[in-house]
């Protein structure tokens, strides 16, 4: 059977078994895997059981602390000399539900209402994860004679930026030889993400000199006031100039237009692609209202645009504090990565984008940048070209009443399947 025939057969199978796909996504949502705390034992078991029930080899890799990863490999029996190895990946942890009273339906319902699959993780990213798992199992079930290898990597520890998910899997060499990867991270319907800003979180600790509160500001040095001045000084990070390479400038410009015209954000939001953003996440200082604060700790999230590095941003942090005469201890925390991207011309990107354009019928389908971070940074740091695409109702991600259109889940599964066939090839 030639490649076009396999493509049509797989598309027909996805339509025929769409209820199974949605059912798997529902089962994943109904299995809580909030991070924190991050224990993914139960959801990993659901994934393993699905694969085993469909005759697919499954590997459980427990990195400790309940951080369980599930891998599966389909090895080609007739690999070509230039055989490719595609990884279909996703994370099975989700952000916490928050206050359940803020939801209009049970957060772990996993039900379908008015054409939407609902519940925590529906968009980020259990619907997309179900799509890659379903696709992987379908290729095995149909016995597609692949010309290269396909691996499934369902990982944990992504939402909290922990090291025991994709980082651990890649460092262990469990995806050796991968030439490309697709991560089922949420994206706008016809605009996969092919690059992202760098992530540069840090903790800033400032020391003061305690004293009686009634004598401020003439006695004692308030660490809280030092922190306030430091926070204002750090806003100048926005003014840093970027110097992106020529080959990525068109991607930046396209992403700026996309952010405002397609994703519906307010005018001016696209400026974040060319500037350092600064979020003062937490401030903890002092011990009592009547005591001059001797210590204040500020946790900061900065995102680094293409054309700058984390080192340059941190150096500028030191300069800004020095200009204010402020001494502070700076230490990295949480997400830390350089700006990273995969060019639109890379085979894994062009194959998926062309396939999605064909299936969606949208001639403007293209890859764009994102301002958030994900496991894509880890794949790229290991030399694996990667892009992200999954169904999503973007406005509901990390919020209440998370949901995703069922028809988009099916479209994504078809995109994963045809992209795999076209990228890996049929023997």
Q: How would you sum up this structure, described in words?
A:
With 427 residues, the protein is α/β, with parallel strands linked by helices. The chain folds into two domains: 280 residues, Aminopeptidase (3-Layer(aba) Sandwich), CATH 3.40.630.10; 125 residues, Alpha-Beta Plaits. It has eleven helices and 16 strands. The strands form four sheets. A six-stranded mixed beta sheet has the order 1-2-6-3-7-15. The protein has a four-stranded antiparallel beta sheet with strand order 10-11-9-12. Helix 1 runs antiparallel to helix 11 and helix 9 crosses helix 11.
Keywords summarizing the entry:
Aminopeptidase, four-stranded antiparallel β-sheet, 16 strands
Write the layout of secondary structure elements.
Elements: H1 3-16, H2 18-29, H3 41-53, E1 59-62, E2 68-74, E3 85-91, E4 112-113, E5 116-118, H4 122-142, E6 149-155, H5 166-171, E7 180-183, E8 193-196, E9 198-207, H6 223-234, H7 249-261, E10 277-285, E11 295-304, H8 310-323, E12 329-337, E13 340-341, H9 347-360, E14 368-370, H10 376-381, E15 386-388, E16 403-405, H11 406-424
Parallel strand pairs: 3-6, 3-7, 7-15, 8-14
Antiparallel strand pairs: 1-2, 2-6, 4-5, 5-16, 8-13, 9-11, 9-12, 10-11
Helix pairs in contact: 1-11, 2-4, 4-11, 9-11
Which strand-content bin applies to the residues?
15-25%
CATH homologous superfamily of the largest domain, by name? Answer: Zn peptidases
In the predicted model, the low-confidence regions spanning at least 5 consecutive residues are none
CATH architecture designation of the largest domain: 3-Layer(aba) Sandwich
Helix content: 25-40%
- What count of helical segments does DSSP give? 11
Major β-sheet, in short?
Answer: 6 strands, mixed
User: What do the pLDDT scores average to?
Assistant: 96
Briefly note the CATH topology name of the largest domain. Answer: Aminopeptidase
Task: State the end-to-end CA separation.
Answer: 10 Å
Q: What class do helices, strands and sheet pairing give?
A: alpha/beta
What is the radius of gyration computed over CA atoms, rounded to a whole number of angstroms? Answer: 23 Å
**Main sheet: which strands, in order across?**
1-2-6-3-7-15
Annotation, overall tally of beta strands: 16
Question: How many domains, in number, for the residues?
Answer: 2
CATH class of the largest domain, named: Alpha Beta
């Amino acid at each position: 059977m030639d490649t076009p025939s396999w493509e049509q057969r797989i598309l027909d199978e996805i339509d025929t078994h769409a209820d199974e796909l949605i059912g798997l996504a529902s089962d994943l949502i109904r299995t809580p895997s909030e991070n924190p705390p991050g224990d993914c034992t139960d959801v990993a078991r659901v994934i393993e059981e699905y694969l085993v029930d469909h005759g697919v080899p499954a590997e459980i890799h427990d990195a400790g602390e309940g951080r369980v990863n599930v891998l599966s490999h389909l090895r080609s029996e007739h690999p070509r000399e230039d055989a490719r190895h595609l990884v279909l990946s996703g994370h099975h942890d989700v952000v916490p539900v928050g206050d359940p009273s803020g939801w209009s339906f049970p957060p772990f319902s996993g039900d379908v209402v008015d054409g939407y699959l609902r519940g925590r993780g529906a968009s980020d990213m259990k619907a997309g994860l179900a799509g890659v798992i379903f696709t992987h199992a379908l290729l095995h079930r149909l016995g597609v004679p692949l010309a290269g290898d396909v691996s499934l990597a369902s990982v944990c520890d992504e939402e909290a930026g922990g090291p025991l998910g994709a980082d651990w899997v890649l460092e262990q060499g469990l995806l050796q030889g991968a030439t490309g990867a697709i991560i089922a991270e949420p994206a706008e319907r016809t605009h996969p993400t092919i690059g992202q800003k760098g992530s540069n979180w840090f903790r800033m600790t400032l020391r003061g000199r305690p004293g009686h509160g009634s004598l401020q500001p003439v006695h004692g040095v308030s660490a809280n006031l030092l922190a306030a001045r430091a926070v204002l000084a750090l806003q100048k990070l926005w003014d840093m100039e970027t110097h992106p390479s020529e080959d990525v400038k068109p991607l930046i410009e396209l992403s700026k237009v996309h952010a405002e015209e397609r994703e519906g954000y307010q005018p001016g939001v696209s400026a974040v692609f060319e500037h350092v953003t600064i979020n003062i996440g937490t401030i903890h200082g002092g011990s009592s209202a009547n005591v001059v604060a001797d210590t204040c700790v500020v946790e900061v999230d900065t995102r680094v645009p293409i054309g700058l590095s984390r080192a340059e941003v941190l150096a500028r942090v030191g300069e800004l504090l020095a200009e204010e005469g402020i001494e502070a201890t700076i230490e990295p925390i949480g997400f830390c990565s350089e700006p990273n991207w995969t060019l639109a011309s890379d085979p894994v990107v062009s194959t998926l984008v062309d396939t999605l354009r064909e299936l969606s019928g949208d001639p403007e389908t293209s890859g764009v940048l994102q301002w958030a971070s994900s496991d894509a940074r880890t794949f790229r740091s290991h030399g694996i070209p990667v892009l992200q695409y999954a169904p999503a109702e973007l406005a509901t991600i990390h919020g209440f009443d998370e949901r995703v259109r069922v028809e988009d889940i099916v479209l994504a599964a078809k995109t994963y399947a045809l992209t795999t066939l076209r990228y890996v090839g049929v023997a």
